[in-house]
Amino acid sequence: MTTYHLRVNGREHAVDTDPDTPLLYVLRNDLQLNGAKFGCGLGQCGACAVTLGGEAVMSCLVPVSVVGERPVGTVEGLGNAQAPGALQQAFIAEQAAQCGYCIAGMMMRAQSLLANNPTPTDAEIRRHMMPNLCRCGTHMRILRAVRRAADALHGKGAKA
Amino acid sequence: MSRTLQSPSRRRLLAAGGSLTVTFAIAPAWAQDETPLNKGKMPGSLEKEPWLDAWIRIDADNRITVFTGKAELGQGIKTALLQVAAEELLVAPARITLVTADTARTPNEGYTAGSHSMQDSGTALRHAAAHVRTVLGELAARRFGIGAPAVTVRDGAFQAPDGRRATYGELLAGQQLHLRADPTIPVRAPDGHTIAGKPMQRVDVPAKVTGGVAYVQDLRLPGMVHGRVVRPPTPGARLLEVDTAVVTRLPGVLKVVRDGRFLAVIADGEYRAVKAAAALARAARWDTPPTLPADPTPAVLVRALPAKPTPILARGTPGAAGRTLAASYTKPFQLHASIGPSCAVAQLAGGQYTVWTHSQGVYPLRDALAEMLGADKAKIRCIHTEGSGCYGHNAADDVAADAALLARAFPGRPVRVQWMREDENGWEPYGPAMLTAVRATLDPAGRIADWQYDVWSPPHNTRPGKAGNLLAATHLEKPFVPDTPKPSPQPEGSGDRNAIPYYVIPNARVVHQFQERAPLRTSALRSLGAYCNVFSIESFMDELAHAAQADPVAFRLRHLADPRAVDVVRRAAQRFGWDNYKKTPRRGRGFAFARYKNLAAYCAIALEVEVARDTGMVRIVRAVAAVDCGEIVNPDGVRNQIEGGIVQSASWTLLERVRFDERQILTRDWAQYPILRFNQVPERLEVDLIDRPGQPFLGTGEASQGPTGAAIANAVADACGLRLRDLPLDRARLRAGR
Asked: Which CATH class is domain B216-287+336-427?
């Protein structure tokens, strides 16, 4: 066991865990954050996506020992059910979920896009979301929700 | 709004066992004596559970609790059921607490499957709630000492013209309406609805987009430990030896369990359990004889299995004169492929098991667990807790069995078990491979004069109820044997679901060639045989239309008699712009129609694809669906289900196939078993709903899969002249041209 200091959603946490533990398990079990989900453990589906230093990463593949000082962002950092953030509002408005298991990962991947490219085209949104899988077939709504969030955050965005 | 209430001549109130038994001696229509009325069939699940207080309970503080035996699977059923109950109870949905499938609390409504939930539970709740509201109105009129028509009701409270109020809870004073539901009591007329039939945001979505506790995967119970199961490397593997000592010494390992070829670890942390399971897998030596078929091609494999032919349609006489066409179609084994591997939490405490599970049927699961554990089923409680979408009988029940076995091995503590991706892909019960063969004769007028159709299919239902249908139970030292599967009878059918064409054909024979055993475990995958049967029939309809030199839409309309079917076909064609379609290079259009199970929702789909023969890539440019699912409760919920069905079916149709060799399953991750990504989903997708107020609810979860598959195949044929009859229409087949 080693103690790691993590900055998650703007707050500092000290976590005692084994160095090879993937960030996903630390977030879910040590910090009790539900957003990031176990999907494959192979970096193939994006259910575990979080932002690390502003970029979307598969947290199932990131050992806690390599996180360092880079800030970690999860869906819990975007807002809450009482005061949802712009992306959360957009996903609610578009009812962009069925089972919803993939959705927190979708939102964090979208968050990394909007943080780096405030006015994405529809084609850019599609391309950016490619690594994340949804099985319920909610894709069309997810794309609309990301579009809506982009427009809400930065005014009407450019469209492809 | 005011309700018209009739006054009974006499009323008796009998308090019994905390329930208020209300009986009325003579008219009104809902009057009731102690002897059961309602000798006829009751609507929906009232047939199984007729007592009002099993469905609706109202506390003295006016808190309303509604119970359903159905489960939220991500299809939005909680929201739709709330809408139905709130509409009839005349309260805001937010006032209602909805309790879903729980063997200790809710009615037993079997499985949440077959697009039955609105028909079963929605119908039951509608009638139960109408009855409750009517009795409450009567009680209010009595309390106010006025005629019922003068009483008004608003959000859970009645009011007299002089301003006196009484809430539902006050009228019942903590007792419950222990009455048999009377379905003759009128439900509210659809044209007066304010909640049902209107779009309502799903009640489960806010928690899902904010990281709330939404899934069984998110349960964190006090003292909870983590289990992982080490499955055999192949379905037929025999465990030769295992050195558990090396695993026991690993950090955090609390227990290593071995029972036959069921191997598992329990650890104090989740990732420690994952690592210990990997170590346990390395510590085990297996014999892996070849037990799977040498040729995995569905046409070869399925045809070789013993079959029991059952004629399900024999109309007219064979041998009509005309031009005869024949074709054969296949579907491979396919995965449910939930994004979140299956998960359960179980605890054995004080001789009582509690199992939190995303099973589609908590009651049948309880029966199977009781048999496996040798426990009284009264000592097992199964509580449905949402999981990742399952799309049928996935590994939900199997992981519940794993968790229960580990809870027994480690009593006192809740044990959480989640499968790994390779377990889910390798061991879930697959949607079966299928084969169909069709032969039809066109008369000189271009009408189908004769039809012969055979469908060969392994089982689509090996759900629990019996311990032998739980994976772990078959791996124990004293293994349980899987139950002998049986086909579900027509009209719903299983492998033969939608095998009978919905078209008017004077002479037709359809045979279900049921196959009891397959080389791989198979069970219910969304829409069962309907996907392959509709793919086959609707592909062949296009082939026949082509032979008859008829437009595919016109050809279908020529053979449809049901006006609701005609409506969805016309609507989809019109919305797509079928008649004015301009074909461009590499692009083509496809059409398909089915009425799910030939008795539920109607769905027609028109779509356009773009085909790149050099890469084999098929892209859906746009898709239009027209749907009639009877009276619509939540329009956006229906759209979401249809959209999802189309996209999921596009994934099945273009990409998906379980691959295996003679020993093992090869498609154990997303690289080996790709599903549709954002680059292949349609550019545009529209769903047009035809509402039928007053008509029975027809579920929508499985309406669009069959038509989508066929519409894609038809569009590919239109785009590049290539008629593909073997699923999936993947890149290799498109490049090879067969």
From this structure: alpha beta
